[in-house]
Write a structure and sequence with these properties.
The relative contact order is 0.15. The protein is 69% helix and 0% strand. It has 431 residues and is mostly helical. The longest helix is centred in the N-terminal third of the chain and has 31 residues. It starts with a helix and ends in a 13-residue tail after the last helix. It is globular.
Length: 431
């Protein structure tokens, strides 16, 4: 870690290619690239010993020779039951349960409940996310206040509550017999942590509407990861809508005025962090898709990933001494404490609404609801935080959401057609 300042000092072009806000120029410790390497070093201090232990148990053929009270734990973490189920049609989610003799009014009520739950959870989450990362706390007439800078602590807060909720749900409800080796969750967990960190950190450099549009365009790298990781093939309409999304995002980004307020300037760091978010998130979804070949429920997946997420983040925070510093910040600013807790509650509740919505109504309805949520999030952010959108930028936003709705329509048509295929034929896999 002592070599990191020297490495960063050798990259003057990256540091000077953009205007870093004065609040971020206090020290190298406030530069996002430095924090990224420090966090990665903290994760490596847990991953490397874990990897060596796994290799040790496999070389010793511990599954046949192991004994003692630790055997069930080691077997579950390193080997699992190794029993896989047939890959499900939707990839990362179980087939939804068809409603049996349910009245139309009841189904409408469930749909409204799911829509309201998803919109309330994720719209509140998005507004709070921008508030926490871009505004100060404790400002008075004489004191400008201070900003919260440690994105990793917010990731830890989200994951610890999601871990608790998923654990309680698994304990109180009947779940499939777990078969996946626990260590395999760590890959999705690590990429999920890094994608969330990049998402929070990017808000220091770019506007929230820009981030939402970039997240909407992640279907492009997801398709690329699908071809590389899972060897998937795609239909022509998927490439067409991906191209429309990239055009719309480009229109929005290029319409940014150079004299705009610093909080809405798309900087080089913001672009790099957004790219990191999209890459890590694309890997997460594809790795989880592969893990679902084991017989497990989405809540079991949520629990397994968050176990390692809590382990990685709390280990890194303790090594850096950032956990106590963040807790002191919470003690100084009760408003931040309320925001951080509500942020975590919205994230955990939103995940449960996702599972319930897809189980009851399918992925197409869920995608429509979440696409509308992204549009509402941009509108609310512009109204609350004063972001401005030019005419060209507005057209770009419209192109992106038209392309997203086209994807939903085309996918639903393809699924209806695939049900009519002869038994020997299989439809093309989708993202």
């Amino acid at each position: 870690r002592l070599c990191l300042p020297l490495v960063l000092a050798s990259l003057p072009t990256m540091a000077t290619a953009e205007e870093i806000p004065p609040a971020l120029q206090d020290s190298w410790g406030d530069f996002w690239l430095f924090r990224f390497f420090v966090n990665a070093a903290g994760y490596a201090s847990i991953v490397v010993p874990g990897f060596l232990l796994i290799q040790y148990f496999k070389r010793r053929n511990y599954l046949e020779t192991g004994r003692g009270i630790c055997f069930p734990v080691i077997k579950s973490c390193v080997f699992g039951s190794e029993v896989k189920s047939a890959h499900q049609e939707d990839g990362s989610l179980p087939p939804r349960a068809e409603p049996t003799e349910s009245s139309t009014a009841r189904q409408v009520f469930k749909l409204l409940l799911c829509t309201a739950g998803l919109q309330a959870s994720y719209l509140t989450w998005g507004i709070l996310q921008e508030r926490v990362m871009t505004r100060t706390y404790g400002a008075t007439e004489t004191d400008p206040g201070e900003k919260f800078k440690d994105s990793q602590f917010l990731v830890f807060m989200n994951r610890i509550l999601a871990f608790t909720v998923a654990g309680l749900y698994c304990a109180l409800t009947k779940q499939p017999r777990h078969g996946a080796p626990m260590y395999k969750y760590s890959f999705a967990s690590l990429s999920n942590i890094l994608s969330s960190w990049c998402q929070y950190e990017a808000l220091k450099y770019i506007s929230f509407p820009t981030q939402v549009l970039a997240k909407a365009s992640k279907v492009i790298p997801v398709m690329m990861m699908g071809k590389l990781v899972s060897r998937k093939s795609y239909e022509y309409w998927e490439y067409l809508t991906a191209a429309l999304i990239s055009v719309g995002v480009s229109m929005f980004l290029l319409s940014s005025a150079p004299n705009r307020h610093v909080s809405t300037v798309t900087t080089f760091s913001g672009i790099v962090l957004l790219a990191g978010y999209i890459i890590f998130d694309s890997f997460t979804s594809n790795w989880q898709d592969a893990l679902f070949t084991y017989k497990m429920s989405p809540v079991q997946m949520m629990f397994g990933v968050n176990v390692f997420s809590c382990l990685f983040t709390v280990g890194s925070l303790l090594e850096q001494g950032a956990l106590l510093e963040s807790l002191r910040f919470m003690a100084r600013h009760s408003e931040f404490t309320a925001h951080a807790v509500l942020l975590s509650v919205c994230s955990a509740c939103g995940q449960l609404f996702i599972f319930y919505t897809i189980n009851q109504f399918g992925a197409a309805v869920f995608t429509i609801i979440m696409t509308l949520r992204q549009a509402f999030a941009i509108l609310l952010s512009c109204l609350i935080y004063g972001h401005t959108v030019t005419v060209v930028g507005g057209l770009g936003v419209a192109v992106v959401f038209i392309a997203l709705f086209l994807r939903v329509y085309a996918r639903s048509r393809m699924k209806k057609r695939s049900k009519k295929l002869p038994p020997g034929e299989t439809p093309v896999q989708k993202v």
